[in-house]
Design brief:
Elements lengths: L3 H16 L3 H27 L23 H23 L1 H13 L4 H23 L3 H11 L6 H13 L1 H17 L7 H18 L11 H17 L3 H17 L1 H12 L5 H44 L7 H16 L4 H17 L3 H12 L9 H17 L4 H26 L6 E2 L2 E2 L7 H8 L2 H22 L5 H16 L18
Antiparallel strand pairs: 1-2
Length: 527
């Protein structure tokens, strides 16, 4: 690749994939990428320090990604490199929490330019929680440790989301982090950044408390007494906020508060009741609303009844479809298939119909009736545009190919071959438009899309978050790995081709997946 930023981004992701195959080699690959990144960062930082005034041309072009004028080329390069830093940190966090955090802080310390150091520190406050959330996926202990340390800057919604992740991975560590949040909240309620944080904590705490009372329930994060303490703190904040927004929030959450602190709930109602307007006006508004709603009540009730009936029939359909994998008399099997096809035909949404037909075809194929499975997949095929143009068309084509991958893999490849040819045209057009808009070459440089400018989301999203794609890619690889590999080579652009290869590699190498392909000829090939 021509771009050093792209080489670094892809090298980090390749190291993450190699970790599934050879941890020692992966660490060496990470070390090389980290060393190269540090050199790049120090080079740009030195250029920033030697920069006097941006050239006149720099004041005439609006930044496509970063906003504002007067950005010199080196400033733009440095900002792109900091997004590559996020990519490398997230990649490391998936495999080694300590290494990820060390890289995150070491590289921040390499920036000596005062202006950019201040900007980086502000950006890092937001990114740090994203990094810890990624760490929580693989190491709840470290995530709790880093999460507790981050509470010094206050409590926001990210901490509640992190709490959920840690609790799901490790109950005890979740409780430990939850108590740290509660302690911070009780000692300094002003550290809570927004009333919705209190609301989220109460809701999640109540959820875990209720679940803990079930026979096999996990230990709760917060006891009834803890929830009362949170409600007390929440009420105090609401009572101190007397403006219109505060009144609205107080009355929105009063029912939740009085569930754990009845006295505080009554206090809130008493304070804000007089501010809600005269009862006559409220009654008039309610009367008008009821009159308007009455006209649509009958139709709404009919639609709701029809929807509930369809949902019930669909639930029964999926239960019946599971039976197709078992030995059944032909008559009973045909009855289940016929009923399922009828229900699916009435299901709203092409995506749901394609998915349901694909699942049905896969079950029929497992039962040994390949001909009927192909017939069902042809029903799904009729729902898909054979010449995809927009993103929805391509999504439906992928869904159809995913269905064939399970029912008849040999038929999936032609659809994907054709879709890739058409996608190449769309991608090429997109890059041309991006080059036209991106006069500062922030997103496209030397004809190459700078994947690093997306802060890691492009690579991480495409190669690790597409769980549905993994299942399909594994099925295709099991069926014909050579042909699956050839699909990735069909992409014209180098960046897209490498991304596609990484998706296949992750699918077949990820040892955490219960169903994975292990063909003898799988190699780490990105050519």
């Amino acid at each position: 690749m021509r771009s050093v930023e792209n080489r670094l981004s892809f090298s980090a992701e390749l190291a993450s994939l190699m970790w599934l195959h050879d941890e020692k080699e992966a660490k060496a690959m990470y070390a090389g990428a980290i060393s190269d990144f540090k050199q790049l960062l120090m080079h740009f930082d030195a250029q920033m320090n030697s920069l006097d005034t941006p050239a006149e041309d720099d004041y005439t072009s609006m930044s496509f990604l970063f906003g504002g004028m007067g950005r010199s080329p080196v400033e733009r390069k440095l900002r792109v490199s900091m997004m590559v830093r996020q990519q490398i940190a997230l990649s490391l966090a998936e495999r080694d929490a300590e290494m990820a955090y060390a890289f995150f802080y070491e590289t921040a310390g390499l920036i000596s330019n005062p202006k950019f150091r201040e900007e980086t520190e502000q950006a890092d406050k937001m990114f740090e929680m994203q990094l810890v959330k990624q760490i929580a996926e693989s190491n709840a202990t470290k995530a709790a440790q880093f999460g507790i340390a981050s509470l010094k800057d206050g409590i926001d919604g990210n901490h509640v989301e992190l709490l959920k992740k840690i609790y799901a991975k490790d109950t005890d560590k979740g409780i430990e982090f939850g108590q740290a949040i509660l302690s911070k909240l009780k000692s300094d309620k002003s550290s809570v950044k927004g009333g919705y944080v209190f609301n989220s904590l109460l809701s999640f705490g109540a959820q875990t408390l209720d679940a803990s009372k079930k026979p096999d329930g996990k230990k709760t994060i917060y006891s009834q007494s803890d929830l009362r303490d949170i409600a007390e703190q929440f009420a105090q904040v609401l009572l101190a906020d007397a403006d219109e927004d505060g009144q609205y929030m107080a009355m929105s959450f009063v029912a939740q508060i009085e569930k754990y602190s009845p006295n505080r709930g009554a206090q809130i109602r008493a304070k804000f009741r007089s501010q809600q307007g005269s009862s006559s006006n409220m009654n008039s508004a309610a009367y008008a609303a009821n009159r308007a709603a009455a006209y649509g009540n009958t139709n709404t009730m009919v639609r709701n009844a029809e929807r509930q009936e369809h949902e019930k029939a669909s639930a029964q359909m999926f239960e019946d479809m599971k039976k197709l994998g078992q030995p059944l008399p032909e008559e009973e099997r045909n009855k289940i298939v016929a009923q399922a096809r009828q229900i699916i035909s009435k299901t709203p949404g092409k995506d749901k119909r394609i998915t349901s037909l694909s699942l049905l075809a896969a079950q029929v194929a497992k039962a040994g009736d390949k001909q009927l499975a192909d017939e069902i997949m042809r029903d799904a095929e009729r729902l898909v545009n054979p010449m995809p143009k927009n993103y929805q068309d391509f999504l439906f084509t992928w869904m159809l190919a995913a269905g064939y991958a399970e029912a008849n893999p040999a038929k999936a490849f032609p659809f994907l071959d054709d879709a890739i040819v058409r996608a190449n045209e769309t991608i090429s057009a997109f890059v041309k438009v991006a080059e036209f808009i991106d006069v500062n070459e922030e997103m496209v440089s030397d004809g190459e899309v700078q994947v690093g400018v997306f802060g890691g989301s492009m690579i991480r999203g495409l190669t690790s978050d597409m769980g549905v794609a993994n299942t399909t890619l594994v099925s295709l690889s099991k069926s014909d790995f050579t042909r699956t590999k050839a699909l990735t080579n069909s992409f014209d652009r180098t960046e897209v081709r490498v991304l596609a290869k990484m998706m296949v590699l992750r699918a077949v190498l990820d040892e955490k997946k219960p169903k994975q392909a292990e063909p003898d000829d799988i190699v780490l090939d990105t050519h």
